[in-house]
Amino acid sequence: MSLPKSVFFLTDFYSAKKEQIEPRLKIARYANELGFEQFGGEFLFINPNDVQNLKEQKKYGIKVKEKLDSLFDHTYFSLHAPWFPPDKTAFEMGKKPFENVQALLDFCPEFVEIINVHTGTIPFEYWDQKLKNNPQQKQKNLEIVKQQLEKLADTDDRICVENLYTPVNKKYGTNYLANLPSDLAKMSENPKIGITIDTAHAGMTIESCKRMVQNQKLFNGFFENEWNEIQSIAKNGPKEFTDLGEKIRHIHFSDFNFNTSTIPKSTEDGAVPGLGVTPKKELFEWLEKLVIASEKKKIGVTLEIKEKKYDCLKNQEKTLEIIASHYGIEKN
User: CA 131, CA 116: separation in Å to the nearest integer?
Assistant: First the structure.
């Protein structure tokens, strides 16, 4: 099959690290060589401190757009806001994490079409001591996030909330706010707020749910009152995320296959073992269903591919080759 006209594959540009700009431009040039006619970039802000030199970073953003415009017939750009700080929950810190998102509304708004909000992890101790048996607090925190997102959406309709990977362990912290499709639906009830589906994160959620049902035991980050949804995800897999439909505005495309070093191999600390890996055929089928469900005329699909060396990006080159082969894209 041919590549749907609505789909723009993107590479990410970590603008806080100048040394990573050129390798990402190399990926764009390689996509051009492979025959991609449309392509784009996601400007990546990971840490709160990344939002400190926006004036200079905007210059890089404009240069990146000019370069990609010279390579492709059509381009598309998105932005990834910093993770909320992991040392405390964002909700006890008040508005600070959202202030970073607010600042980024002015980052190249003339061509950045989507802004992804990623709520990050919380310390395992906070989960264990205050949240583990407190689903009411989760709902309160979801409401706080929803209200803050709605304040942003009052003046900007590019906001999307991203699903997260499921609980990890004491070393890496845990997640609990955006593991489930119902969490995403709650935070995006406002019609101006969209959803970003990360296929690797969702893959781990699906794997977690299957194992919880198999063992009849909850992993960290889940609550007793969520069992019905957990069972549905275990049974239906990707469909539970695809059913979010037209709320889907953006996709992060990977399967954690190159990120094996950070994923637990056992259920110690209530963590899900495994990688969230989806076989290639199923991954492309899932992507195509997400694109159809979104009903968008344009949708960005960011290649979040892990690398051993970010100065050569061999894994992303291989991913582009696989995509080109799958969609019958021929070299220029």
Answer: 26
- Of 275, 279, 44, nearest in space to 168 by CA: 275
pLDDT category, 258, cuts 50, 70, 90?
very low
Structure tokens at 316: 């992303």
Q: Is 174 helix (H, G, I), strand (E, B) or coil?
A: strand
For residue 57, give Cα distances in angstroms to 25, 53, 116, 184, 188: 16, 6, 18, 30, 29
Proportion of the chain above pLDDT 70, given as a percent = 87
Contacts of 113 (CB under 8 A, 6+ apart): 76, 77, 78, 158, 298, 300
Q: Could you please report the per-residue DSSP string of 3-60? A: PPTTEEEEEEE-TT-GGGHHHHHHHHHHHHHHT-SEEEEEEE--SGGGTT-HHHHHHH
Of 37-51, 121-135, 252-266, the range with the lowest mean pLDDT is 252-266
**DSSP readout, 67-101?**
HHHHH-SEEEEEEEPPPPPSSS-TTTTTTHHHHHH
DSSP secondary structure of 197-246: EEHHHHHHHHHHHHHHHHHT-PPTT--GGGHHHHHHHHHHTTHHHHTTGG
Going from the C-alpha of 169 to that of each of 23, 151, 156, 233, the distances in angstroms are 33, 33, 36, 22
Centroid of chain to Cα 257: 16
Complete domains list, the chain, with CATH: 7-327 (3.20.20.150)
Beta bridge partners of 227: none
Is residue 127 a contact partner of residue 177, using CB atoms and an 8 Å limit? no
Torsional class of 237: left (φ above 0), alpha (ψ -120 to 50), beta (otherwise):
left
Residue 273, amino acid: P
pLDDT band for position 86 (cuts 50, 70, 90): low
